[in-house]
Amino acid sequence: MDFRSDTVTKPTKEMREAMMNAEVGDDVYGEDPTVNRLEKLAAEILGKEDALFVTSGTQGNQVAILTHCQPGDEVILEAESHIFLYEAGAASALAGVQTRPIQGTRGAMDPSEVKKAIRGEDIHHPETGLICLENTHNKAGGKIIPIQTMKEIYEIAREKDVPVHLDGARLFNAAVASGIPVKEFSKYTDTVQICLSKGLSAPVGSILAGSKSFIQKARKWRKRLGGGLRQVGVLAAPGIVALEKMVDRLAEDHANARQFAEGLSAIPGITIDVDGVETNIILCDIRETGLSNEQFLTKLKEAGILAGPFDDGIIRFVTHREVTNEMVQTAIERIAQIIAGK
Ligand code: TLP
Fold first, then answer.
1. Which end of the chain is more exposed for a tag (fewer CB within 10 A), N or C?
2. Residue 241 is part of a domain; what is its CATH number?
3. For residue 273, is it within any domain?
């Protein structure tokens, strides 16, 4: 029972068949019909003029930063965002930008804080090159950033002529859980990155979407990074299945996460904000069990359950297509036994 991440999902049978039957061509020449179809479909769904198939969420975010910014620019982002915490410092290593982290609440930056952080004209200051948002917010526990917050930040950014990029690795989770179409979220962004390989179960890949001229420049940045692939329709084909067939079922992952959180919250020593479980990520505080993260995770592993450490005393469980409701029930029972008998 692997609750470490929704990234562990394997391609479905339909995806494998689509891979096998994919029509292909040289995508660096723009001649892969399956990639072209995926990019068109994704652009339509996200309400953008154009889209680019990239190898990963990290590559999508970094190509966005490289395309939007100049070296020496400053990027405003949330203090616990994936781009800031988990992309190996790529924004500074590759784009030569500096980051300006703002502590959010439940992952959401306060629009007035963003406004204050945008640089004015001063010879000493960097230029504010970009504002990055993340929805859902991973480190905050899969929280949905309210659309109103996105709208306010976007309006402020427009006034100051600063572009907004959305790390929407799990944007479909936000859309399914809130009932608000992805387009409504991406409307308040200039560019958006979505992952096909998380809850949507494709084996590889992300989409970066934006205006035609932006994607043209982004395509060159992807090439510079060695991300210009050839007969890559075999990897785009499962991405099409992901977008067409795998979105609605995310509701099951959310229901399982809620049930998991409720079950875990009844175990003495485990603290969870059950109402804070809005999508497929559960964060639980195990400090009162007296076990360290390592001890807790080792005991879970012996009981056939995989989860991941987050902060000190905080464990992350993620639900996805390959963990059924029965598995969630079994995991709750086994974790209760572990804590009782520790
Ligand atoms: N997140 C992974 C780990 O890197 C932490 C996970 O297991 O959750 N943005 C967000 C919000 C993400 O959560 C991730 C992956 C990415 C970007 C990067 O995507 P990949 O792994 O495709 O580079």
1. C
2. 3.40.640.10
3. yes
Using alpha carbons, list the distances in angstroms from residue 317 to 43, 256, 323.
31, 11, 11
Domain membership of residue 12 (yes or no) is yes
Runs of H (alpha helix) within the chain: 13-21, 33-46, 57-68, 82-85, 90, 111-117, 147-159, 171-178, 182-186, 212-224, 233-245, 250-265, 293-302, 325-341
The CA 82 to ligand 1 mean position distance, Å, reads 7
pTM, rounded to two decimals: 0.97
Segments forming the whole domain that contains residue 198: 7-245
pLDDT at 341: 86
Render pLDDT for 308-336 as a digit per residue (tens, 0 to 9): 999 899 999 999 999 999 999 999 999 99
Asked if residue 2 is part of any domain, the answer here is no
Please name the residues in contact with 214: beta carbons below 8 A apart, sequence gap of 6 or more.
Answer: 50, 67, 68, 190, 191
Q: Is 33 in the same domain as 175? A: yes
Question: How many structural domains is the chain composed of?
Answer: 2
Q: How far away, in angstroms, is 301 Cα from ligand 1 center?
A: 23
Give dist(CA 79, CA 322) in Å, integer.
31
Which residues contact ligand 1 via a Cβ below 6 A?
5, 7, 56-58, 82, 86, 134, 138, 167, 169, 195, 197, 206
What mean pLDDT value characterizes the chain?
A: 97
pLDDT of amino acid 153:
98
* Residue 97 near residue 61, CB atoms below 8 Å: no
